[in-house]
Amino acid sequence: MRFETKLIHSGDEQARVMGAVCMPVFQSTMYELAGEQGYDNIRYIRLNNTPNHLQLHQTLTSLENGEAALVTASGMAAISTSLLSMLNAGDHLLAQKGLYGGTHSFITEDLPRFGITFDFIDGDDADSWKRKLRPNTKAIYVESITNPLLRVADLKAVVAFARENELFSMIDNTFATPANFRAAEFGFDLSIHSCTKYLNGHSDIVAGCVIGKKERIRRITHTLNHLGGALDPHACFLLYRGIKTLAVRMNYINQSTLRIAQSLENHPAVEKVNYPGLSAHPRHQRAAELFSGFGGVLSFELKGGLAAAETLIQRLKLPIHTVSLGGPETLITRPSVTSHAGLTEQDQKSLGLSEGLLRLSIGLESTEDLIEDFNNALQ
Asked: What crossing angle do the helices spanning 233-243 and 51-63 adopt, rounded to 10°?
């Protein structure tokens, strides 16, 4: 089946309960024992294996053509549990510089407490990675499109480097989404998503997932069952419903975001726009080769700096000033005080993250209305 059809019909094998076209919400905490072997196979809501979970796992697996999938209580639950499952005390991690703030903080503050060391690498300079490789390096972690500067690493080189050096390759694919990039097809061992964003697409749940090799997912599942990061069945139901419209939403969002990025790029009040769909983006050609669309997030800076950024936020009518992204509403935020607030001022500066940087998540409003709103506010 093609991608659009998978969104609608993958997971159907778990559905049709008493003829229902939509899978009901199975709110039962426990299920009658039927000879299951092993702790992780006991049917229990905390073990993420109710009918709603199983249907969602099957759907998520098919979207990126992986071998297995696991849903979690949040994107950070997916990230932290995956890293803790793949790494042990004494291991070393290579991680892309400029990651989402929560991931950066987990790597720099929490992993060392478990005896895990790390080094940050330039995702654009594959020749430099070898110099940071150690005998105990076990994994390499990147983002398909970084948050919030929209950088695109040499993802093909990441996979090749991981295979050459027997590392686990892990990618946060939230910004690109399976509609634009299917990590398993490129050889990544694990693909992680904050399902709170585009996979759900409606700003009403928090969830995460991991898609990848069966043996890897089995290890992560065992760890998650101990940590307790289970997704509620009703949230599973909402996520499964949201996934069905991913293709049509992302097709519109890809087109709308590119037009808005071009409009901002040409505005005299705008200093710089970060969006891989723009020809001026330093890795536009790489992004065009990797992705079927450039996603719904862009970031930009105004010539007036922080003061101008705060004034713009106040003057805009349509974008909502809040955290997160990927909903039907257009959202705007300053990452330095939201997604990356946990980083020190020095870390923010080293990443190129200015106080006046604005991150914009384009929703499903009329593109023309959004461009008009920005032009009026920037005037």
From this structure: 30
Quickly count: other Cβ atoms within 10 Å of residue 164's Cβ: 10
3-state secondary structure of 210: strand
pLDDT per position as a tens digit, 32-87: 999 988 989 999 999 999 999 999 999 999 999 999 999 999 999 999 999 999 99
The highest-level CATH class for domain 247-378 is: alpha beta
Tokens of 72: 């979690």
For residue 157, give the DSSP letter. Answer: H
pLDDT for 13: 66
Query: Which of the four pLDDT bands, split at 50, 70 and 90, describes residue 318?
Result: very high
pLDDT, tens only, 182-224: 999 999 999 999 999 999 999 999 999 999 999 999 999 999 9
User: Which residues does the annotation mark as catalytic?
Assistant: 46, 100, 172, 197
Q: What are the extents of the domains in the chain?
A: 3-243, 247-378
Q: What is the pTM of this model?
A: 0.95
Alpha carbon separation from 142 to 105, 120, 303 (Å, rounded)? 15, 10, 31
Judging by beta carbons within 10 Å of its beta carbon (0-12, 13-18, 19+), is residue 266 exposed, middle or buried? exposed
Q: Distance of alpha carbon 95 from its chain centroid, rounded? A: 15
CA distance 216 to 210: 10
Query: What fold is seen in the domain 3-243?
Result: Aspartate Aminotransferase; domain 2 (3.40.640)
Q: Report the distance separating Cα 149 and Cα 130, nearest Å.
A: 25
List the one residue out of 140, 148, 236 whose CA is nearest residue 188: 140
Q: Is 35 in contact with 3 (CB distance < 8 Å)?
A: no
pLDDT > 70? residue 275: yes
